[in-house]
Amino acid sequence: MVALYSVVLLAGLVAVAGWLVAGTLAANLDSRVTDPAVRFGSRGRDVANALLGFGLGGMSSSYAGWAVVPTVVAA
């Protein structure tokens, strides 16, 4: 399970970092083509943040003394 959480966490980090870089470039270049808010909308931002949150929650529950299933469900 740790490998799954690690992969999801890495995907979330890349997605959020890519979102920030693309948004910054779009704002500086006044380009709506590369703006992730226009291209993917709020649903895309929510997916990127959900990947990051699920990966962080899963890694946290893997190394904590709690039961894994309730913690993952809560994440």
Explain this structure.
By secondary structure, this protein is mostly helical. It has one domain. It is about 85% helix and about 0% strand. It has four helices and no strands. Helix 1 packs antiparallel against helix 3. The radius of gyration is 15 Å and the shape is elongated. The two termini are about 15 Å apart. The mean pLDDT is about 85.
Mean pLDDT: 87
Q: Unreliable stretches, pLDDT < 50, 5 or more residues?
A: none
Based on Cα principal axes, name the global outline: elongated
In helices, the fraction of residues equals over 70%
Please identify the structural class as seen in this structure.
Answer: mainly alpha
- Biggest β-sheet description: none
- How many helical elements? 4
Domain module tally: 1
Strand composition percent: under 5%
How many runs of DSSP E, i.e. beta strands?
Answer: 0
Distance between the termini: 15 Å
Q: Any idea what the radius of gyration is? A: 15 Å
Short description:
The protein is an all-alpha fold and 75 residues long.
Spell out the blueprint of helices and strands.
Blueprint: H1 2-29, H2 36-39, H3 41-63, H4 68-74
List its salient traits.
single chain, 75 residues, mainly alpha, 4 helices
